[in-house]
Structure formats: C-alpha cells, structure tokens
Amino acid sequence: MKSAVKWMAGNHVAANLLMLIFVVGGLVMSFSIKQEVFPEIELDSISISVAYPGAGPEEVEEGIILKLEESMSGISAVKELKSRASEGVGSVTLEIIGGEDVDEVLQDVKAEVDRITTLPEESEKPVVTKMVNRREVISVVIFGDATERALREYAEDIQDELLAREDITQVDLSGVRPYEISVEVPEEILQSYGITLEGVAARIR
C-alpha cells in the first residue's frame, strides 16, 4: 500500500489520469443506475393460494392445507412455512432460505403443486406467486350515478389509458367485485337430460 502511494506521489500524470478514469466511469455508470421512488422489494417468499368455495376453515385445512404442506416437504430451499385456512380459501406462504434463487424455487413449487391430484373437486386451480412488496404512489377514486358494471368498465378504460403511458408500469383495480356469470336451468330441462344442478355446477367448474 505504501509503495503504491509513493509511486503515485512520484507520478503525478498517472495519478491524475487514474482519477479522471474513475470520475468518467462514475458519471457513465450513474446514467444506467435504476432509480425508483417506491422500489419493489422482493421478500424471498412464495405464496400458494387455493379457493374452495363454500368450505369452512376445517374443510379447507383438511382438503387443502395439509396436502399443500405435504407436497412442500421435499423442497430443501424452504426456511419456514406458514399456513392459513379461512372461509372458502386456503393459503400457504413459503419463506425461502437467503441466497437461494427465488425464481428457481418458484418453478419447483409449481411443479410440486401440479403433482397434487387429491385436492377436492370443488376447489379451484392453485395460484402460485412470488411475493413482491409494492407501495402505492397515487390512488384514483371513480364514483357516480351509474351501475357497478358501468363504473368498473369506466375504471378499466382509465387503467388502459394510464398503462399506455411510458412512465407508468403498473395500475391495479381495487374495491371492485370480479365478473360473475349466472346460469339458470329450468327444472324440466334438468329432468329431460337426467342431470342435477350439482352436475351442471361441476361441469362449469
């Protein structure tokens, strides 16, 4: 270290050139650094959620949670597993060991979930996602003397317009219910085909 300092002291031109390289390099790199006011923070966690319409917490635990926990037992990159069974839905959150590639673990989790063949027929397809923490920058509230559907469609139009801007990358809708389709089958039609409402619901599901 002392010899390097001594050499620099005796070679002013080389020292100045080295300093100039560092300054120019720093300025060049500063333009490529990603800057975010509210950055996304990866939490090194993966969430598995399964909707089970009409099921109580005990049914969700037995039919969903226990089977998900069993399927995750073979993934060594999992540090901690937390489960939650509530009315109509079950969720499992996996905390990943530090240093592991979360995207690779995510693919392993999806593969294990896809191998489960014993989930209840009434349950919906599991949703596996990598958890990312986002902070809200601004919220826009839409209201007026219109139907809920009309307000939602207007909000979706605004969402599309905002996403069309280059400086906006994400716009989420909240406070709205998902679209629903109502299917009504007359009793005589059911009898003529020898089917039940439960059978129709199973086919739609």
Structure description:
The protein has 205 residues and is of the alpha+beta class. It contains seven helices and four strands. Strands 2-3-1-4 form a four-stranded antiparallel sheet.
At a glance:
The chain is of the alpha+beta class and 205 residues long.
Largest sheet: 4 strands, antiparallel
- Count of helical regions: 7
Spatial order of strands in the largest sheet: 2-3-1-4
Count of extended strands = 4
* Share in helix: 40-55%
Mean pLDDT: 84
Order of helices and strands: HHEHEEHEHHH
Strand content: 15-25%
Give the termini distance in whole angstroms: 72 Å
* Shape descriptor: elongated
Structural class: alpha+beta
Give the key terms.
205 residues; alpha+beta; 4 strands
Q: What's the helix and strand layout?
A:
Layout: H1 2-10, H2 12-30, E1 41-51, H3 57-72, E2 78-86, E3 89-96, H4 102-115, E4 127-133, H5 148-163, H6 187-193, H7 197-204
Antiparallel strand pairs: 1-3, 1-4, 2-3
